[in-house]
Amino acid sequence: MAYSTSVNISIETQAENIIQEISYDGQEIYQPALSMSDNLSKLAQRIDFSKVDDDSKQQEVEIKSEEESKEPSPNVPVSGWIDSVVSKLKRAATEICVISDVLAVTKEKRYMILDPIPTESIETKPMAQIYLRKKALASASNIIMSAVDRLRSSQNEFIRNRTTPDFHIELLRLRQNWRLKKVSTAIIGDLSYKTAGSKFGQSGMFEVTKAEDDIQSNSGTSSNSPSSSPGQNVSITKSPSALRVTVPTELQGVSYIMVLCQKDQENIFNTSFNLLGSAPATPNPDMHWQQKLEAAQNVLFCKELFNQLAKEAVQLQATIPHMVVGNQISATVFPGIQLIIGLCHSSTNGNPNTILPSKTDHDHVLEHSLHQLLREVHHRNTHQPFPHPSSGPLGPSKRRAVAGPNAADRFELLEMSKSQTLLEQIIEQAQHFFMRLRTEYVIDTLAKEVKDPIIISHWNSLNSPTQACVKVTIVSHGFDCICRTSLVVHVMKKSLKCICRDGRVMYLSYEPQELRDLIFCQVNIDIN
User: Which parts form a coiled-coil structure per UniProt (predicted)?
Assistant: First the structure.
């Protein structure tokens, strides 16, 4: 008898995931394994419900055929028929029970939940909730306080780093206020007023370099260096700068313009103006770069102003020629009265180039006028009227442009072409200032001398640099409404315009005796 030598071997697939992709370098990327729910849904998708319906129909057909084959013949006993009825009733009862169970499950939702539902609710204690909230608030406060500490430490570090001078930060601040450009490896700046309309030829170039000394050496030298003048008692703590500014020698120090009127070597009034807050004192060589550049720009502005005034003093054809000697300009305002304009420049070593008389009362109006004169010239240089048509020449004003269509005569053309120089405007303002001082002196002197009637003066606060107005009221004591005489005096540049009570207009010269006689006449009229 032959026996089979074959043995059944069970082969199982390797438990590895399916390869999803193979990269160019040969690395295999596997598809992740399916979870239990994904595997169940995958198996459920494989079920063919149409095939299940066909199988159920086929089973019903087989059951019917079996029942037909089992139908008793006419001579079958009655007991077989009763058994079939009983089986059908049992099947119907089973189906009814199944239907009732399904309805009960769908009606009661708790039968559909897999996890058990607790029947009793957990009792919560209010104190436990309070403790939990306190614990949560404490943890939140700890997080906030730690964030605050980190912010405080970062802010302190930022402040500590900010006090340390940085060359690039200082250079950025310098560039925000001054014009800079890089020439090869050097940084050159310009502090002139050329962009504002200045035509002064002197260069205002300065060089910016990096400070090589450390902070400690700078602080040591600043503490050991003596003060610039014995009168300075204010100690200023300055932080060391990371950059140094080198200005030309001719722009170092402090400059200012002094204007004064003299009569027989006696100062009638004088004024000095300083630009950008500089004072006529010897500056500290270790000053900050911003103050150093402002002082140098002030020196350049004063030199430009004095150069313009000196040029005009030589070119003007006056009755009494103007004189330019060194750093002083002398011009005649009235007979016996001279206007002296001087340029004072104190260098860093404290040796002034010119020695001028000591200053008396400071006149802010004249200071502002001197400051604005050169500014207006700069403004006119940069804001010229646009020609119409556009092909016309630049420079003429709008009145001269329409002089031809308006048939202007030669006199009008000459009036349009006239323009005052800076020196002429300063002389006119000085003349008006001198006339106003004389008028005030005459009115105040008469008010003191004449007790009855009373002389009252009201000066108009809205005046121009070359014109002022004063109203003189003469009132008898006890007859304020009846005996009242008014006199209006317009103070011009070289003359006085007086308007009497009866409407008469009288023009007086610059001599104070004429105004004194006129007021005496009005006093006598008021008394009579």
Answer: none
